[in-house]
Design goal:
The chain has 95 residues and is mainly alpha-helical. It is elongated, with a radius of gyration of 18 Å.
């Protein structure tokens, strides 16, 4: 049985997997679990290129700050509200 396949998506960076304690138990069967940390982890290949017409804006940049101000002043666009972003407080870096 694959426990991970039944995990719902983590929508909050402060949340924990539903079966977190079960994962610890399974790992402890192989070796003692000395520490557990939760967080977002991903890697991308170096020099990742993708041809597109969209402008990519990243957090922590001048363009990123401008985008957040644009969403804060008149309010979030309806398309982002429909995705569950009620405010820019839902953006957590890096984005």
């Amino acid at each position: 049985m694959c426990i991970a396949a039944n995990e719902p998506p983590l929508r909050d960076p402060e949340s924990a997997p539903r079966c977190f304690e079960r994962y610890r138990e399974l790992l402890a069967a192989e070796a003692p679990v000395e520490a557990c940390e939760l967080g977002l982890i991903w890697t991308f290949p170096e020099n990742l290129r993708y041809e597109h017409r969209a402008v990519v804006v990243a957090s922590g940049t001048t363009a990123g700050h401008r985008l957040v101000r644009r969403f804060d002043e008149p309010g979030m666009p309806e398309t982002l509200i429909a995705l569950g972003f009620g405010s820019t407080g839902g953006f957590w870096p890096p984005w």
